[in-house]
Design a protein that fits this description.
Order of helices and strands of chain B: HHEEEHHHH
Radius of gyration of chain A: 22 Å
Oligomer: heterodimer
Order of helices and strands of chain A: HEHHEHEHEHEHEHEEHEEHHEEHEEHEH
Number of strands of chain A: 15
Strand order of the largest sheet of chain B: 1-2-3
Number of helices of chain A: 14
Distance between the termini of chain B: 46 Å
CATH superfamily of the largest domain in chain A: Type I PLP-dependent aspartate aminotransferase-like (Major domain)
Strand order of the largest sheet of chain A: 2-8-7-6-5-3-4
Structural class of chain A: alpha/beta
CATH topology of the largest domain in chain A: Aspartate Aminotransferase, domain 2
Bound molecules: pyridoxal-5'-phosphate
Number of domains of chain B: 1
Helix content of chain B: 40-55%
Helix content of chain A: 25-40%
CATH topology of chain B: Sufe protein. Chain: A
Radius of gyration of chain B: 14 Å
Shape of chain A: globular
Chain lengths: 428, 149
């Protein structure tokens, strides 16, 4: 992919997002710094969803009438667009409802393979999890990349192992030598942390995964929306992310995997739309992607997401990433200049736009409340990463996270807001 | 800033100098409450009198925001030495105020400093912070009575 290097024209970009035009608490202009939770949507995405319902709504892949054809084409074109975005073939993209469902698709696929293997010799042994096996994740994961694996371990008797998080927010890669062994069946790691904005050393993890022939899954929720991601370069068996964090509508998630994995993995959900033929004795499944898309799909949402992808492509993901790195650095440096502020995780380097911090003596809820009063939306809490919180020695943090519609003036307003928080509560 | 509706002086004062804080012996029932959205936690102990009627001590320890900490401290002041049915009455009044979206004439005789929490009732995301300690005490009382083990 060749991209011209540009500085983002954020003033113009902001105008494409209707929600950013309004005033919030106390008539303040909205400064939205919670895109790691969910991104805002440009008008073209909102319009694409309405237009689907106004013009072509009908059952995708069901029926030969005019509208059904249009809807099916629109849905499949969206798949194609999203496939291109991460450099896979259309058949390698599975639509789900969010990343959490995508991760469950894999975990339950493995559970189903394990159950089925008792009667079916054709199940690939790579998918069968036994009591002697181990699943390896990191202490930095989002609950959505912890709980499905804990649950799979509960049902198979496998052991869950953790790559430790150092107190400084880096992963302890030296532990891999001991943690990865012939017992390691699955390795599942985040690509970019939703708490710290840090990037995982995927190259290293891939090397370890390959050395023991373990399945490698990457939680790409925070990477695909914010940086160029080429599935072929990752060396993973599968990745997942959510459409709603990359300008798309709610209710549409993605699972992308190698053709080999999609061929051998049993389906998670079964029923209509995912079959080849059904008789009273037996059902045969369709090939991927249909095999993993049971029931009537969220076609309008897929169509909306494709417009989000087009919007990002127009800017160029290299430019998006550079823009967010610049904002994050400005934010981190600005925060560090305010006495009493701690920034979690590395303070420089190759990072994304999610910044977690603490104000001495103040609880994140109270910090977020004062910022909210100024029209600044940040996330407070454990960010669905309680094991990471524990390692960082905090109950919760305040997190500001950026996207393409944020500029330096947003960061300035935010930094000024943080100073005001201290003023409001006085010294404790 | 309208925010001072929520963070009234009384609340900040309770937050900065919490009354009755710390876990104490003896106690008749203990409860652990977690606010799943922020991870805040509180452990509450209650000591009921022999006839299980008078709340002789309430002690607590926890991590939380100013609202949850102040709510606990206010509760301590307001409820210590009262009997269980009085607690139920106060707790009902407090809940009604918190669910009122801030449009309510709270009974100051019952709630004491607790009436300052009316500003919090305007912020749905924070109501749980104010209620956490009340749920803890209620649960600890139930446990003291042996109705729930
Ligand atoms: C790193 C990471 N993984 C998983 C998820 C879960 O995504 P969703 O809630 O859209 O399923 C999120 C976001 O909430 C995330 O940031």
């Amino acid at each position: 992919m060749t991209e011209s290097k540009i500085k983002l024209d954020v003033k113009t970009i902001k105008l494409d997002f209707p929600i950013l035009q309004q005033n919030v608490r106390n008539g303040n202009k909205l400064v939205y710094l919670d895109s790691a939770a969910t991104s805002q949507k440009p008008k073209i995405v909102i319009d694409a969803v309405s237009s689907y319902y106004e013009k072509i709504n009908s059952g995708v892949h069901r029926g030969a009438h005019y509208l059904a054809e249009l809807a099916t084409d629109a849905y499949e074109d969206s798949r194609q667009a999203i496939a291109g975005f991460v450099n896979v073939k259309a058949e390698q993209i599975i639509f789900t409802k969010n990343a959490t469902e995508s991760i469950n698709l894999l975990a339950y696929g493995l559970l189903n393979a394990t159950l089925q293997a008792k009667f079916d010799k054709k199940i690939d042994p790579r998918l069968v999890i036994s009591e002697n096996d181990e699943i390896l994740i990191t202490e930095l994961e989002h609950h959505s990349n912890i709980v499905p694996w804990q649950d799979l371990c509960l049902k198979t008797g496998a052991q869950l192992k953790w790559i430790p998080l150092n107190a400084d927010g880096s992963l302890d890669y030296s532990s891999l030598e001991k943690l990865v062994s012939k017992k390691t069946k699955v390795i599942s790691v985040t690509h970019m942390s939703n708490v710290l904005g840090t990037l995982t050393d995927i190259e290293l993890i891939t090397k370890y995964a390959k050395s023991v022939n373990a399945l490698l899954f990457i939680d790409a929720c925070q990477s695909v929306p914010h940086m160029p991601v080429d599935f072929q370069n990752l060396g993973a068996d599968a990745i997942a992310w959510s459409g709603h964090k990359m300008l798309g509508p709610l209710g549409i998630g993605l699972f992308a995997a190698t053709t080999e994995l999609l061929d051998i993995l049993p389906p998670f959900l079964t029923g209509g739309s995912m079959i080849e033929t059904v008789t009273m004795e037996k059902t045969t499944f369709a090939k991927a992607p249909k095999k993993f898309e049971a029931g009537t799909p969220a076609a309008a949402e897929a169509v909306g997401l494709a417009q989000g992808v087009a919007y990002l492509n127009k800017i160029g993901m290299t430019n998006v990433f550079q823009h967010e790195k610049d904002l994050a650095n400005k934010m981190v440096q600005g925060l560090l200049e305010i006495p009493g502020v701690t920034v979690f995780g590395p303070h420089d380097g190759n990072r994304g736009g999610a910044v977690s911090f603490a104000l001495q003596g103040l609880h994140p809820h109270d910090v977020g409340q004062v910022l909210d009063d100024l029209g600044i939306a940040v996330r407070v809490g454990h960010h669905c990463a309680k094991p990471a919180m524990k390692k960082l020695n905090v109950q919760s943090t305040t997190r500001a996270s950026t996207y393409i519609y944020n500029d330096e003036s947003d960061v300035d307003i935010f930094l000024d807001g943080v100073t005001k928080v201290f003023e409001f509560f006085g010294s404790k | 800033m309208k925010l001072s509706n929520m963070y009234q002086e009384v609340i900040l004062d309770h937050y900065k100098s919490p009354r009755g804080k710390g876990l104490r012996e003896p106690f008749t029932g203990q409860s652990h409450q977690v606010n799943p959205t922020c991870g805040d936690e509180i452990t509450v102990r209650v000591k009921l009198s022999e006839d299980k009627n008078i709340i002789e001590d309430i002690s607590y320890e926890g991590v939380g925001c100013s609202i949850s900490q102040a709510a606990m401290s206010i509760l301590f002041e307001q409820v210590l030495g009262k009997n269980v049915s009085e607690f139920d009455e106060i707790s009902k009044e407090f809940l009604a105020m918190m669910q009122s979206k801030g449009i309510y004439e709270p009974n100051e005789d019952l709630l004491g400093d607790g009436i300052a929490m009316i500003g919090v009732a305007q912020y749905p995301a924070r109501i749980k912070c104010a209620l956490l300690s009340w749920m803890g005490v209620k649960d600890a009382i139930i446990r003291s009575k042996g109705e729930n083990k």
